[in-house]
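Hey,
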Amino acid sequence: MRAVVLYEYGDVDKLHLERDQQEPPFGPREVRVRVRATSINPVDWKIRSGEARKRMPVEFPAILGRDVAGEVVDCGRSVTGFPKGMRVMAMANGTYAEFTTVRADVLAPIPERLSFVQAAALPLVLTTGAQLMERAVKVQPGWRVLVTGAAGSVGRTAVHVGRKHGAHVTAGVRARQREEAETLGADRVVAIDDEAEVAVLRDFDAIADTVGGETIGKLLHALQAGGVLGSVLGVPEAAQGKDIRVESLMVQPDASRLYQLADDVARGEFSIPIARTFRLEDAPQAQNFAEKRHPGGKVLLVA
């Protein structure tokens, strides 16, 4: 099979298309999937560059990729409910390839109204946004919640999930994203790169943070005493000594929740924009585009 293989840490030139890789084996509770599309996520280039080596060390040679949308090819003897040819999606590993192996319990069917490309944009960001709200923040009806980076894919999902839970959601975005953010369905939009707007923010029950860095440090004053900071970027130094609860999220696959949210996307309740698609063999250019150009939408590889 064709696969994009990483042999050492480095820049995008370390990603090599191999045409004679063996198809991955599958165990009794696993499914082999023909990959039709996958997406590029920040974790991919952080792994490739070595930036994430302490948290996620790589055994070389490695195939990157965390999202998959494709068709069932083979199943292990203990797997039921996934006939050959079924369209499926999942948070997985090794998806920059024509075939990958996925645990059956993390696979979800693709809603009929979604294409493979649309579905491939969803697993990691939908699952992360939902778990940020539901497992880290533990959002409650009536809460006032600020979502940072709300125009991004994880942020969009967090806004949607928060509103579904009955929270009053404020979308925090860059000033230039304000018009776009007005379409997200949040109760309010604020520019979190505008010091005047940030200064008057007060009394939030929770912040769901996808931005980190100096930005979150400037926003902590907006949390009420005992409020919650949920983050996908670890515990910020600025939170030390504050009378708040900090919850750092490490996302886990959840096939049932993935399908529910993908169905919401299929029905037009919210959207995850796609900026551009590339061919599998163009993975280096695709990663460079996603990392350096900040395209404002998901970047996909089509196998």
